[in-house]
Amino acid sequence: MKKLSQKWRAWLDTFLTDGKSKISYQKLCDSEGNPLEEDDILFADENLMTGKQTLDVWGLDCRDEEDFLTLDMEGVIPVFDETGNFPIALKTRDGHLAYLKVSRKTKEVLPIHAGCCPVLSVIFIGAPSAGKTVHFLQLCDPAFHDMLARNTTCSFEDDLPSDAVRRKRYEEARADMKNKKILPEPNRKGEVILPYYFYVQRRAGEETRRVLLRLDDIDGEQCTDMEWESKIFQSNIFIITIGADELLAAERGEDVQYTRVIKQLLPRLKVLRQDGEYEVRVMITKCDLLDFTNPYLAPAAENSIEVKDRKIRQTAHETGFDYHVFKKRSRCIQSYLRKECSNFYNNLINAIPAEKLDFCMVASIGEECKDHRYENFKPMFIDEPILSILAKEGLYPVEVPRERPAEEEAGGAVKSARQKFYDAVDRFKDFMGLSDEYDDFMDEDKEDDED
After folding, report:
1. Nearest partner of 365 among 357, 376, 350, judged by Cα
2. Whole-number Cα distances in Å, 113 to 32, 99, 353
3. Residues 6+ apart with CB under 8 A from 13
4. Biggest CA-to-CA distance, the chain
5. For residues 281 and 399, which has the higher predicted lDDT (pLDDT)?
6. Confidence bin at 61 (pLDDT 50/70/90)
7. Which tens digit of pLDDT belongs to each residue from 9-39?
8. Which of 318, 268, 310 minimizes the C-alpha distance to 152?
9. Mean pLDDT of 150-178
């Protein structure tokens, strides 16, 4: 038995070395914006986290980190799943499993796939009561994920341990909104709101793309009184939320808060994100308050979703993200803002490169709410902001533009197949943000009509 045990240990040591050589760590930040390196990821289980056990019970020396396992400890086995790159857990030779990942710098629990795949970080920025949190909660709803996954090979999985406090916070708030028709209270000033993570996968042929989708919600006063050291600027994608009620107030000449957000965001973005690796979405919330008979908004009025038997179903993007529909709606919003909020709009396009800027709108509830309650659920366009992000990253199927019947142009000539191909390429470039400059939106609308 002793000889067999020695052979086993020799084989196990070789296995451990081979396992650790598979590591290709994918960087991420914790909730406070601290960049985490490979050795900043600690491992534990519930007993170690709560102090009910120590590493002595596990037969390991504590060394530098009190009651946490590290990847370089002698005698730990890395456990991988299909993602690879970095372990999802560590196991000891005695069978103890450390399945929680913890930030060395903040001691917060990290997502299951931290370090395993790239992080796509999305943050919602906006003044108080802009509607950030309501839309945020919808993005966390399993029913919403089911709608997005239908007719695709995409999957969405909560990537935080089920007992994490932040999961309970959002589940309770979402349950109240969905079942009791009570809107969440505004986030309190200075409230620590930890990010939420989803493990997103999409299989296309033999290839599977994977990403950690990180969603950040912050209180509105952090946006109207923005600090230069704000964690806001660690994100990849900035969604600027503007309530339609504020847009209408601005049209009446009243003071509004969204201009304060933009005034503080743009100069900081220029200085702090000179890497240029970011995108901006301007999202009008509560869009049911807008007048869709307005000539600029009328072409964008057709909803992208419907509610049947209390379930949300996609209509415009049912068979894949239709970027032509999305970009047409985006152009309509741009035309509206350019006309009604000219200085705000011009500040945006002068500060942010065209290929990094898009416009969208949502109505999370679809009716005016009183005392934080609503009666009817009539959402609009709530799938489009996140779909536009996922599709651009190859994480959601894109609907290929269908051939349209040949029509006679003004000169009477039939559009050639070559021209149709060029048109399709132009639309694809437009969606991918490959245009060199902003189009004249009104002329482009005319070209769409001719198509």
Report:
1. 376
2. 18, 11, 33
3. none
4. 93
5. 281
6. low
7. 444 444 444 455 568 899 999 988 899 999 9
8. 318
9. 85
Q: Locate tokens 């709560």: which residue?
A: 50
Task: Output b/e per residue, 38-69; b: 16+ Cβ within 10 A.
Answer: eebbbbbbeebbeeebebeebebeeeebebbb
Q: How many CB atoms lie within 10 A of CB 319?
A: 12
Residue positions counted in the chain: 451
> In this structure, are residues 239 and 384 in contact, taking their beta carbons and an 8 Å threshold?
no
Specify the 3-state DSSP secondary structure of 102: strand
Q: What is the pLDDT of residues 254-283, one digit of tens each?
A: 999 999 999 999 999 999 998 889 999 999
**Res. 383: pLDDT tops 50:** yes
Bridge partners for 28 per DSSP:
36
Task: Specify burial of residue 127 (Cβ count, 10 A radius: 0-12, 13-18, 19+).
Answer: buried
Q: Which two tokens stand for residue 379?
A: 């959402």
Spatial distance between the Cα atoms of 359 and 34, rounded to a whole number of angstroms: 30
Residue identified by tokens 């509105």 is: 220
pLDDT at 412 over 60: no
> Are 67 and 47 in contact, with CB atoms under 8 Å apart?
no
